[in-house]
Amino acid sequence: MMKQNTKHRKHSEFTLIEMLVVIAIIAALATMIGSAVFQVKGSGEKALCFSNLRQVGLMHLQYADNNEGIFCPAWDETFCQWDSASNYKEGGFLSRSVHEAGDANNTEVFSCPAAQKKFRKKEYAPKFAGYGYNYMLSFASHRDFPPAFRFVKTVKVNRPGKVVIAADAGVMWSADEVGPTSFLNQPSSGTGGYADFRHQELANAVFVDGHCESREMKKSGGQNEKSLGYLSEDDSAYDPFFRKK
Fold first, then answer.
1. What's the pLDDT tens digit per position in 114-169?
2. Burial class (CB in 10 A: 0-12, 13-18, 19+), 210
């Protein structure tokens, strides 16, 4: 009887070890699958963001084609912006001026899917949130209101494949809260809006020649823990007239 109990006990202990091994394997697989699902989901958001930005870039270029080559204003005296009206409930210059853009109120093209999630947690997700327009394409004179604008023409851009039109963007709304912005400021400004590197530490951007690409952060905006920074160390990705010294 004693031998039988010992064998039974040993058999139970072996079974328990097996169960623990199986549980550990399942946990490891679950972690791997969860990570893979997260990456796939992130890749899907990045691809949709790419598609959105490509369309936004084409709208900007078509606006310029329809207006003697001049880029779309960032905003006007009424604070109607390039992407939306000041109330964030109606379309801005692009959707009003470019027929192919359609009704901006019935599209998500001006809003990055990853930004919607990021900002919605803090209730900062208007329909026109997620992309910032390169401030220097409209405000090259660094002055804020007409008639001080020095409008930029597409043919005057020195390096169309290097100068950004629009990109994933964000700005600090408070000491610890990131919110949406409609604008990108250059590094020399020392201020936001920043590029938002929210796609696995990459930011999507569309350039003056129409191509899209993902970029790593080249310079921190002082908010790199919030994924905010600049697309270039100097103003080369922003300034349409930039020339290397």
1. 887 777 665 555 677 789 999 899 864 445 555 455 688 999 999 999 999 999 99
2. middle
What is the CB-side half-sphere exposure of residue 195 using CA atoms within 13 A?
29
Would you say 208 and 163 are in contact if contact means Cβ atoms under 8 Å apart?
A: yes
Biggest CA pair distance of the chain = 102
Structural Rg of the chain based on CA atoms: 25
The DSSP bridge pattern shows strands 228-230 and 219-223 to be: antiparallel
The helix (run of H) or strand (run of E) holding residue 114 is: helix 113-120
Query: Model pTM greater than 0.85?
Result: no
* Domain parsing of the chain, residue ranges: 2-230
The rounded distance, in Å, linking the Cα atoms of 1 and 108 is 75
Residue with tokens 């905006």: 221
Q: What is the pLDDT of residues 68-114, one digit of tens each?
A: 999 988 877 677 788 887 777 777 878 777 765 555 566 778 888 88
DSSP character string of 10-35: HHHHHHHHHHHHHHHHHHHHHHHHHH
Q: Which of 163, 142, 149, 127 is nearest to 73 (CA)?
A: 149
